[in-house]
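Lab meeting, item 3. Inverse folding demo.
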């Protein structure tokens, strides 16, 4: 056996465990969900009424009811709000930590704390902050010198989604911070020294050196944050249950409600298949953008 073939066999041997796990926990569940999406399967089957093949009826019902489209719109709105906010927070924290602060390692640990705290715990804590007697209404009253009335942040249709966005951005930005920090530390210091010799200001260094050098990092952060944002569920289920007036309903919550609350496994499987295709499309977009960037370079 030649060395090349031997190396190939070794590579496949190392990849086999990971590929097996991917097949077991990703590919197989998707195939089973796709099969169930064409049936009228119930969570608790009736032995006297066998499961039947019903074709595309579950997909038609999802769009006819308007529930899936509303959830898609609300989830997309959440993504459009949280991705730039969370990415900006991550970049800002990374820039701060990457500077020559005397206690930057301490700040690095402090900033990473929100990510290692369970979303359930974070949601419970922020629920108290959003109460009528909570921190946000107290701050609002102080800033307005007592003129502003307390806001029911989680039950007001205009403030419920921004409240969820702010909570989610705070809990998740340390992940983006770590990625941006790695990107910042990979930028050659020679570029900054050349910019200073040309008389560039701090803002010009950031605009013309830092941001262009982080292009691949921006792509990774934005796409991964978008994928994570589409999986919004825990904080909504705990704080608003999709309300008020379904303004915080999400795709994952539709799957949960259809499958586990209403027992309609077939419709839930159809929603899960559509959700998977959305995430897959975003992943393919990331791959295409990265390839285009490499071709330009």
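The presenter then showed the designed sequence:
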């Amino acid at each position: 056996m030649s060395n090349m073939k031997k190396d190939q066999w070794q590579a496949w041997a190392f990849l086999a465990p990971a590929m097996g796990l991917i097949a077991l926990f990703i590919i197989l569940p998707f195939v089973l969900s796709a099969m169930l999406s064409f049936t009228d399967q119930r969570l608790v089957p009736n032995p006297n009424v066998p499961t039947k093949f019903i074709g595309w009826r579950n997909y038609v019902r999802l769009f006819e009811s308007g529930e899936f489209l509303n959830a898609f719109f609300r989830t997309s709105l959440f993504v459009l709000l949280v991705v730039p906010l969370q990415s900006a927070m991550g970049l800002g924290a990374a820039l701060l930590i990457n500077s020559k602060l005397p206690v930057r390692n301490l700040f690095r640990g402090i900033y990473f704390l929100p990510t290692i705290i369970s979303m359930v715990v974070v949601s419970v804590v922020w629920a108290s902050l959003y109460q009528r007697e909570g921190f946000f209404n107290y701050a609002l009253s102080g800033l307005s010198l007592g003129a502003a009335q307390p806001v029911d942040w989680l039950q007001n249709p205009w403030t419920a989604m921004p409240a969820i966005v702010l909570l989610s951005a705070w809990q998740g930005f340390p992940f983006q911070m770590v990625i941006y920090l790695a990107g910042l530390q990979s930028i050659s210091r020679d570029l900054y020294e050349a910019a200073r010799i040309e008389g560039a200001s701090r803002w010009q260094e950031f605009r013309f050196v830092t941001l262009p050098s982080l292009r691949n990092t921006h792509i990774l952060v934005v796409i991964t944050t978008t994928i994570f944002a589409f999986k919004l569920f825990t904080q909504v289920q705990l704080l608003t249950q999709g309300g008020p007036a379904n303004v915080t309903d999400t795709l994952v919550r539709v799957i949960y409600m259809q499958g586990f609350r209403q027992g309609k496994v077939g419709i839930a499987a159809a929603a899960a298949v559509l959700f998977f295709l959305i995430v897959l499309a975003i992943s393919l977009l990331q791959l295409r953008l990265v390839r285009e960037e490499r071709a330009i370079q």
